[in-house]
Amino acid sequence: MIEELACVNCGTHYPVKESTSQVWMTCEKCGPAEGILDFRYDLAAVRKAWQDKPLSSRLPNHWRYSELLPLKAQSMPYDWQVGWTPIIVADRLAKHLGLSRMLLKDEGRNPSASFKDRASAVGVAHALEVGATSVACASTGNAASSLACHAALAGIQANIFVPATAPEPKLAQLLVFGARVFAVEGTYDQAYQLCSAACEKFGWYNRNCAINPVLVEGKKTGGLEVAEQTAKSGVPDWLAVSVGDGCTIAGIWKGLVEMHTLGVIDRLPKLLGVQAAEVAPLVYAFKKNELPAPGQGATIADSIDVQTPRNWRKAVNALHDSGGTILSVSDEQILAAIRLAGRHGVFAEPAAAAALAGVVAALDEQIIKPGESVLAMITGSGLKDTRSSIRAGGQPFKVQPSLDAIAAILEAQGVQSLGL
Length: 420
Ligand SMILES: *Cc1c(COP(=O)(O)O)cnc(C)c1O
Ligand SMILES: [Zn+2]
Description:
The protein is of the alpha/beta class. Helix content is 40%, strand content 15%. The strands form three sheets. It has a six-stranded mixed beta sheet with strand order 4-5-13-10-11-12, sandwiched between helices.
């Protein structure tokens, strides 16, 4: 139930005819760097549709929000099980941190094991709608593996540009899903430029979130879901999200605001953006309202290892609008948060654990106050980066097959060794 597209830079409105299939990219006046377009919906019509067919009567996946997605009703692939991931109520963790509630939304349970499936599923469905037979993206890993997964579901070719340094499990997913993988000997920035040029030259559908407004609508479903899933028990005071390009946090915020306008929730959380200490351009941009010169640092949190965020303005706006803030955490703090999430039943890759590490840091800095409630988006599974998982988890006991050896270790360690 799209009303129009609007340029986030100059405000120009672009009419959208729902009856025709279209490819949208950026504002004609502002160009591809600044002229990011944004879908606006007829929310009165959506409210009416949700009265006629209540959300509670719908399938438990993110297509339940069909009226707020930029696809035709007949293009909605209802059998692709994306979203409606569980929110784990981590009571012991809340007590440990001094919070009234600590919630972990486990996005690792999506089909390719990350939050990015939300965007890629909508992107590939849209590619099918416009008749594309090839899709492409440049990615630090998860956008690529989710695109490859959904291209395989759809039966179209995925072309992927990744930095040659991407973690092996993510590469393995790409290759097994049958993507054509270009491991670029260069930076993510160079991979990004190469992908854009290739899309133009070969006519591939570009899955790039920063310029293709369709993709952000997929990320938005994370926010729609948090709203619907916490509406009864109470919207948390804070929502922690790790930030790379900035599309995820901006998309989640858009979803929350739509649900607030629709009356599903009666208040909005504050956003806590979290970056890695060595790669934190958005922490700078939040204060100075401009990007710093790209740095040289790196982080184990490869999914947020982005020196030139493409959607920084949207992310900064979302942080300000929510009354929230952004901070950074070290790789050591991220590894500790991998253990912490694991001890409460959630397996997180480094960029996902960064959100929880940010909560711990924000409590230390008294940004989050004792007794408040927090939801952390755990954006990807620990299986995505087994090397970092093992670094966080430590080594097993090597033993001879003898009960005495076990008894000796138990005696040395005590029974409660996991910090549970
Ligand atoms: C992509 C990603 C993020 C950050 O999303 P951006 O849109 O780049 O800000 C966070 N966590 C994981 C696991 C990701 O894959
Ligand atoms: Zn414009």
